[in-house]
Amino acid sequence: MNYIGSKHRLCSWLKQQIHKKVGKDLSNKVFCDIFAGTGAVSKAFKNDVKTIISNDIEYYSFVLNQNAINNHIEIQDANLYIQKLNDLVPKTDGFIYQNYCLGSGSQRCYFSDANAQKIDAIRAKIQEWHVKKIIHDNLYFFLLASLLKSADKIANTTSVYCSFLKELKTVAKQEFILKADDFICTKNSHKVYNQDANELIRTIRGDILYLDPPYNQRQYGANYHLLNTIALHDNFTPKGKTGLREYHHSLYSKKSKVHDNLEDLIKNADFRYIFLSYNSEGFLSKKTIKTMMQKYGKYSFTKKEYKKFHTLETEDNRAEKTYEYLHILEKNR
Ligand SMILES: C[S@@+](CC[C@H](N)C(=O)[O-])C[C@H]1O[C@@H](n2cnc3c(N)ncnc32)[C@H](O)[C@@H]1O
User: Fold this and answer.
1) Counting atoms of ligand 1 from 1, which one is nearest the CA of 221?
2) Using CA of residue 205, residue 210, residue 216, residue 221, what is the dihedral sign?
3) 144 CB neighbour count, 10 Å cutoff
4) I want to staple 270 with a disulfide (CB 3.0 to 4.6 A). Which of 47, 146, 205, 232 is the partner?
5) What is the per-residue DSSP string for 224-267?
């Protein structure tokens, strides 16, 4: 997924830095990715550590991580279920078609009519199987994550859902095919939460805490509202031109709140090592973070030049660079 702030391309560098500080062998460590997003970082460590604790406040992210992280044993007949879902008859009275497609008269164009009708049919069937206990939770989240990722690929947007394109773009015209999402099998089990990081931190403990909070005013709940709507499968009145739902407003995306909120998280973390990713263009300066973190232990810092996130790549912005900072704290305990 082209996700705001995704660490997909930075994972190998992050791993290098974490190994440098904590050591080569992480097999007895508990690793917490408390702002997990797509789960890119949790996935990178899933095979190396004893337990992953993965968390995000957004429900779509919880679904993605229930599959990517919580699922760790092969699921029988997974592809058979994918096939059954791909064979369903499109649904014309579903929520996505009725509210987010031109054909229904909604005046919104997030998906082609045919693709939205398929998404609706698949989402309804996954729910029906789950309610009737035909599928267990592991298979439910595997299928839901597969649906979210497959739908995201053919959405008529510039990767975020705060607006849609007027005309269907080429990938949005392609026929929707449900593709199986993957997950890594491990012998150990893992934990996935859907909580506010500052609440969760008071209830968990471990060895390595990775923090990747939002660094500017962009609210994930607004930018990915349609993924939440597909994942939650609930009923509400979509608002305005973009069809927004009520969404969570993160304090990490509020300039006046972020400092105290981050300090609260660090202060209450029962983890020996804390690694904080923060963009050079974020609300908090490098110096501010250093001053805050060094109150709680031994502080160090490293950085990497990084290609800037753009919803739409153009000739002009393709090469734009920014810095990803990694603040490191070995906490006094
Ligand atoms: C920069 S993104 C993380 C990206 C992730 N590392 C990845 O590679 O996909 C920040 C994430 O923090 C989540 N978030 C924002 N406020 C939060 C909070 N108070 N508690 C937990 N998660 C939060 C957002 O939903 C978003 O997924």
Assistant:
1) 25
2) negative
3) 25
4) 205
5) THHHHHHHH------BTTTTB------GGG-HHHHHHHHHHHHH
Model pLDDT for residues 20-29, shown as the tens digit of each residue: 999 999 999 9
Tokens of 153: 């690929």
| Chain Cα centroid distance, residue 100 | 22
Residues 175-199: tens digit of each pLDDT:
999 999 999 999 999 999 999 999 9
User: Who lines ligand 1 at CB under 6 A?
Assistant: 3, 5-8, 35-38, 40-41, 56-58, 61, 196-197, 212-214, 220, 250, 252
Judge if pTM exceeds 0.85. yes
- How much distance in Å is there from the Cα of 330 to the middle of ligand 1? 22
Mutational pocket test of ligand 1: of 250, 253, 266, the residue with most ligand atoms within 8 Å of the beta carbon: 250
Rounded Cα distance between 14 and 208, Å, is 12
